[in-house]
């Protein structure tokens, strides 16, 4: 009887060890697969980005940790109302005016890199975040700027153009595209993987109009913040 009980115990123990080994192996494989998938996504994301670096005088070396991303809209609608979103035109505007941004997302979701993240782009200008004095007129040091090629509402565009000119713009140029939202979400995830102080929430992903409401209107009323943040905030 004793030997039979002992043999049964050994068999149960062996089954338990085999099951544990299988579970550990399964977990290990799943983790490895996830890591491989993440690495693959990062490589593909980097490969599809298009570099169009502005001259270094349009930016400066970064000396502070990134805590925010600031969103903007851009176009060349004043010069080319019928074709306002040529990236080369946007580049020239930044270049000629001595300003800059880190990334530009065109209407198809293509991402262009104008300034590397280890440099401060000149995109924020004067402004402030209530209750945080260090950001006042100083957001370039702490943020990454992203321009989406888009045009806002008539009211938002009035500081830049006449109502008559606005009325000539094709409706397809107004607001944002699905591919821009998708690309922006991917880009934000990618950026946050390198900057641990940057949280993917509305306290850290802000619009230019929030920082400088007296001067700026972008990304404007047509930008769907809920759609952008739905995958980030639980």
UniProtKB/TrEMBL annotation:
Keywords: Cell wall biogenesis/degradation, Hydrolase, Signal. It is an enzyme of class 3 (hydrolase). InterPro entries: Amidase/PGRP_sf, Amidase_domain, NAMLAA_amidase_2. Residues 54-220 form the N-acetylmuramoyl-L-alanine amidase domain. It catalyses: Hydrolyzes the link between N-acetylmuramoyl residues and L-amino acid residues in certain cell-wall glycopeptides. CDD domains: PGRP. SMART domains: Ami_2 (SM00644). Residues 1-21 form the signal peptide. Its EC number is 3.5.1.28. GO terms for biological process: cell wall organization; peptidoglycan catabolic process; peptidoglycan turnover. GO terms for molecular function: N-acetylmuramoyl-L-alanine amidase activity. This is N-acetylmuramoyl-L-alanine amidase.
């Amino acid at each position: 009887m004793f030997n039979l009980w002992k043999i049964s115990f050994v068999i149960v123990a062996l089954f338990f060890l085999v099951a544990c080994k299988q579970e550990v192996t399964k977990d290990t494989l799943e983790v490895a697969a996830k890591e491989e998938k993440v690495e693959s996504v990062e490589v593909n994301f980097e490969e599809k980005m298009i570099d169009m670096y502005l001259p270094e005088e349009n930016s400066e070396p970064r000396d502070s940790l990134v805590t925010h991303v600031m969103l903007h809209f851009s176009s060349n609608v004043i010069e080319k109302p019928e074709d306002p979103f040529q990236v080369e035109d946007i580049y020239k505007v930044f270049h000629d005016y001595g300003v800059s941004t880190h990334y530009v997302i065109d209407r198809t979701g293509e991402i262009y890199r104008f300034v590397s993240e280890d440099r401060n782009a000149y995109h924020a200008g004067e402004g402030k975040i209530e209750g945080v004095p260090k950001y006042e007129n100083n957001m370039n040091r702490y943020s990454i700027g992203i321009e989406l090629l888009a045009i806002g509402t008539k009211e938002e565009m009035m500081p830049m153009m006449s109502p008559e000119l606005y009325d000539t713009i094709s409706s397809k140029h107004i607001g944002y595209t699905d591919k821009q939202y998708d690309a922006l979400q991917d880009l934000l995830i990618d950026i946050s993987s390198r900057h641990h102080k940057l949280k993917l929430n509305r306290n850290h992903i802000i619009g230019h109009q929030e920082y400088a409401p007296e001067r700026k209107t972008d990304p404007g009323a047509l930008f769907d913040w809920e759609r952008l943040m739905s995958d980030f905030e639980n």
